């Protein structure tokens, strides 16, 4: 990288950190990222990128788990109040908050980079030990928090946009910067893939900050990206007066409780990494009424189709058994599915090679188990099907607490590492 | 009862049934009964009663379980839109929706009658087999339903108000008609007792429709009114990424599930009637996050202080054990308590005597197990402490489904039975 | 009762207490009471009764829950070593340990008295606070204990045999003293009823010591004798290496655990007394093997056919649900059933009348809830079907701990009370 | 290997298979392998080995989980009846069923080979699809089965003894063949290590048949041998009559059930392989008694000290919570612990090299995850501490069902593979 680019990055870093803090302060849940997406679109436009949003980059037929209209309206109103631009959000109806910026320069391959932008339904910690709280940029939206580092991904993405737009970065071809909504729940990638966003790409890269890899290390591929299945489960029993006629009730709350304990107790696979989680349970309507309804949001994961099948099969039995035991009806509604994919050797090698030259990266590992999934895998599968190159890599960052914890925080200096790495990759492959 | 009164009742019955249907169509949860209370106040005023509401009849210091300010505001706005009068609701701030109408006539004892007015958080059935649905007066407020017959109690109360105001009903003394909010949860009676509402009463009567006693029967006392304790229980664990770092989480949802199952599994007392219910459980925030919080709304009941103590003691152990097992913290917040009371012999005898003469009442039982509690017991205890007479009786009514069920419905003709019985009681004791 | 009889009772009481202690020291489980039955038979014979045992008084086709042949052999060998007489036990093959002694005197009605003789599978307490331990007559058979007072019943039965055989007790007719095995589990009465043991009886009486009724009180009828159903439940899964191939196992132990918790959590009936118990659970074979089998011994009870049906129905669902949830097969094997019965008015009146005259009985209650069942109900039902008189009464006794507790003990002086009461009844009805 | 040795192996193979079948037919649980050990000792003696047994090769102070004296006596009597020699078993008192055969030949290193000999508490399948059942050598001891292939290990061990004793196998030094009892439960290795059995060894090898590795493959090291902790857990509540006084009981069976479900529901570690199993649960004494006692045999595993610590910590919380929730006392008794170890590079390389030359071995993998542990790790740790070489390798074998399943069976031809491999190793390192 030229000294000019190095200087640009050093100069602009404080602004990118400020950007990250602003995004962190205003977190938005999946398919509701109106303000974040508007910000990305506006920035890309200002930098000279051709910007596509909404229908242009998302296939609504492939969207699942979209929040209710009222929730969309509320989120939009708040986003507008907080500075989102109506000219962009008008084009994001129905939760289509994906944004793609395209920049062409001479003749060369098409390189697509993916940055995910959504937050999580968590109440952020307010203790002083927590950086965002201490420094005044903790979430201002109760119950929503950037607890997975996607705020950092947004900052890196827009930093890369700026660096790549500089004539001092040497590359030729087409650059597509993909800002993807709703990575949590594995819902946002598929509609963008189905809209053809990477159908012209020769190279695809996506990355995650953290994942238990310390600052100063990079892994050139994610190992064991987990396959996952997400279900909304509903139990329906019969309400009755809890003291007068308990025997006439059929208790959906107890069916839900039993299912939750049973699901967490499924024997894990002996030869595969498998997980199960009941993340949310709501049941019942009144204290002195036998609960008529219960709903559970669950996911099962496995590191292969086979092990995921095993988990699904057992989960189904547990849920049916819980319903049966309480005399309740039940319904299992599939609401999302993520797949696992592996990086191609050439794309991984490019990451290794570039990372080895980035100052501050002390060690480059060939692979790292990320202990979860990322629906970037849908982009990767499309690339593989098209015989093209794709890599999901990990940018290490010392974490204050694990991902999805209310004390989660990463090292802001690693925004710089990520930016340099992506910029280097562009120079490396777009030529 | 004179033939004139008989005629009055026969003539007005269709209106009282229409009133019941109107109340049924617009159910209001405890401490939010702005429209129902406004209607009662206006009617009493029109009939010549001195009407007291809000602060005049409720001690806010004794109120627990009051809905949040936002919920109050929403309910009030809706009530006003549906015809509640602002001049009444203005005096019901903070959920003080109790109403007392007082009528004096000559010299005689003070007789207090209690009618409860609140609905339940249930989604009413929409099947055609369900009378209110078939006849077009099912609840128009989603998730709220008169599933315990308090709509009938309101109708009876205002019918009695009218009959008693007629010069043809022979009585002397002071009549106090108490329209009490928030009987469900056992929250509304105590604030009215503490405000001194029955401190001048010589006789107190309250009744319930149904309670598994068929139409045509009356029981002159409630047997085994259950003591109950209501707790809000919270578990706090630690959020974590469900696939990446499950071992760093502490699962509050599982603590809640285990507590729910454990509570329902407490050994019932061998020599007493005891019950436990977890009516509501909510836990977790995101599908792929180990749930950090869970909350349970529970109640335990017993037919004596001793058996209630036993249930409380075991419930406490179960909750502590569940928290311990999941490495979570827990908090038990008491939010209500109802007591049991027994009717006095003289008041019960009066009911028996009067009921024996009411047409349509085929059998008068000395007592009936109501299989639950009623916070009317607080009024009764105050009467007993003051050496006065009190009776809680049951007006049988064939039910379509058990109390608190979404198909609950009673026989509207029993509004007439109840009205006649109360009117007869006034004639019998107020002289 | 004549003074001579009074003197006889006073003189012999210490021997009957010694007898009780001997029986207590050598408890025998149901259908294995070889020594106890042999002792009863020998005593009756010595007193002049015609003695019938085994096939003569039991119908083997009606026997369920008979211990395995090996257990019978072991128990028999031990009984013989401890003084049982082979001439009696030879006639008790197959666990037919029932004994009936018949004495005729002049012309009069036939009076049948039932005494149950079996112990429970409990390890008796060894603390000094426990009478039998302190006084050296605690069970010498590990894991078996008279914890329900049947040792007292045996002593009363043989005391009554002696008193009735005395010419000083005034009666005429036929006296049948029935020593019934296997009351626990409700297995012993039916085979004796089916063998026709009470088919010639005009009066039938049975009693229980204790039942939470204090010494000095007698209740002339048992109220709410519970109906019960006993099941042996088996779950079959699939064994597998717990660490290497847990996913190939199907865990019968977890199915059993879930069923146990679920059964105890069944909503109790709102209008009836109902109970459920999983008394014994055994599951699995090796620490590092996924358990292939689990078995549960359960019982459900209700105070009516209806409420028992409810409990059975729910229990069946819970068991099926648990099997389903763990991918296991299950089997429900019915192994016993007891019924409830009520005493006839005339027989109860006789008990009341006689009890009122027994010294030391301070109060005679019309009825008492015994909080359980007794298969004496099978005798009572046969009597009722034949239009004859039957009564199950309760002889109060202060208990050291509740029935079936390892610290259970009753007051030995109440052996005297029981003896006098039965003797009085004989004089009262056999004339 | 010389052609003579090859011939010897081919000739003798049917006898070794017959030996395996004989051992399979007469399986013996850990520390009760009197017949198996006697057979090994006699064979070694006949082949010219110096034979040590009992105290000479086991330190009783390091023995845990030894069966009760009665069980030892019974097993011994049966072993003698089935041909065990008293001159050997007399020296195996107290369950010290370890045997070591030593053969010296010229000057050279000391090579120790370990073969485990115990069976599992499982009832062998009797279906015709199951080889041992079809061919008439299924277990004749009900509830005990060679379901892990140790019968094959015994056959290989004695085959190797014979081949090594042949002058045609070229080696020099000292050969120690260790026949170890009680590998299941991880109890037998430590007492032999503590007795100094490998304190003079330069090389140590142990192997397992199967482990999901197919026939024709060998893995030169076991990867992720799991650390494990074994606990016996007891809950003590209070017995009571299940219908009369359930509220006076404290239910140990429910505490056990809750603990079992809770333990299986512990969140598995996100970065480590962890397991938990409740293999056996027994609770309660009588159907109509609230269960006073429950006992659970459990184990937790992890692939490191850290992850095992995590599992132990959570397991402790679950057990305490279950006790608390049921008002029971609890006790956790540690009864065994296995460790993980890794093979040394030199020893693994030797296995690889030799395996590459064995006919019938098509592929040699550097390592294989065995999905469990083996207390051979205690020998390996001692070797490592002494700076010597050790390797645990896997001899693939197609299995009929997974290890510890009642249909488990391996390919008998792999006895030949194992024998050749060990023989080759002796030639390779003992020189």
Secondary-structure map:
The structure is a homotetramer of 431-residue chains.
Chain A: H1 3-25, H2 34-46, E1 50-53, H3 69-81, H4 86-89, E2 99-105, E3 110-116, H5 131-134, H6 150-165, E4 173-180, H7 189-194, E5 203-209, E6 217-219, E7 222-223, E8 227-236, H8 252-264, E9 274-283, E10 293-302, H9 305-325, E11 329-338, H10 345-357, E12 363-365, E13 368-369, H11 376-385, E14 389-395, H12 413-429
Parallel strand pairs in A: 3-4, 3-5, 5-14, 6-12, 7-13
Antiparallel strand pairs in A: 1-2, 2-4, 6-14, 8-10, 8-11, 9-10
Helix pairs in contact in A: 1-6, 1-12, 2-6, 6-12, 8-9, 10-12
Structural class of chain A: alpha/beta
Distance between the termini of chain A: 14 Å
Strand content of chain A: 15-25%
Strand/helix succession of chain A: HHEHHEEHHEHEEEEHEEHEHEEHEH
Q: What are the segments of chain A in which pLDDT stays under 50 over at least 5 consecutive residues?
A: none
Largest interface: A-B, 66 and 66 residues
The largest β sheet of chain A comes out as: 8 strands, mixed
Number of continuous helical runs of chain A: 12
The global form of chain A is globular
Oligomer: homotetramer
Calculate the mean pLDDT score of chain A and round it.
95
Helix content of chain A: 25-40%
Textual characterization of the structure:
The structure is a homotetramer of 431-residue chains. By secondary structure, chain A is of the alpha/beta class. Helices cover 35% and strands 21% of the residues of chain A. Chain A is built from twelve helices and 14 strands. In chain A, strands 1-2-4-3-5-14-6-12 form an eight-stranded mixed β-sheet. A four-stranded antiparallel β-sheet of chain A has the order 9-10-8-11, with helices on one face. In chain A, helix 10 packs across helix 12. The two termini of chain A are 14 Å apart. The relative contact order of chain A is 0.17. The model of chain A has no long low-confidence stretch (mean pLDDT 95). The interface between A and B is large, with 66 and 66 residues. Strand 9 of chain C pairs antiparallel with strand 9 of chain D.
